[in-house]
Write a structure and sequence with these properties.
- This protein has 88 residues and is mainly α.
- It has one domain.
- The protein has four helices and two strands.
- The protein has a two-stranded antiparallel ribbon with strand order 1-2.
- It is flat and about 45 Å long.
- Keywords: tRNA processing.
- Belongs to the eukaryotic/archaeal RNase P protein component 2 family.
- InterPro entries: Pop5/Rpp14/Rnp2-like (IPR002759), Rnp2-like_sf (IPR038085).
- Pfam families: RNase_P_Rpp14.
């Protein structure tokens, strides 16, 4: 809870201006990871509805399918590695 209070006062990260919003408070890292997976799936579904071209729908559709595969993954360690490999 103290971290959440502190984050509301952050306005910069390095040289980038930011505005942070809390979307979930969880008791464990695992519960936060599960929440984020569901949250991003909903965001992808919303993005898919807003696509205007076939190319946009293809790109977002692939992301939706990939997120479905991630949800089916039973091991969060495996999930973490997949997410990290996408970032790097």
């Amino acid at each position: 809870l103290m971290i959440q209070s502190t984050l509301t006062f952050m306005t910069k990260v390095k040289d980038c201006e930011v505005m942070l919003h809390t979307i979930h408070i969880g008791g464990t890292l695992k519960s936060c990871q599960k929440f984020l997976i569901r949250y991003h799936q909903k965001q992808l579904a919303t993005s898919l509805k807003q696509c205007k071209t076939k190319e946009e729908k293809t790109v977002v559709g692939k992301a939706v399918k990939r997120s479905d595969a991630i949800v089916k993954a039973s091991n969060l360690k495996k999930l973490e590695l997949n997410i990290l490999s996408d970032v790097t």
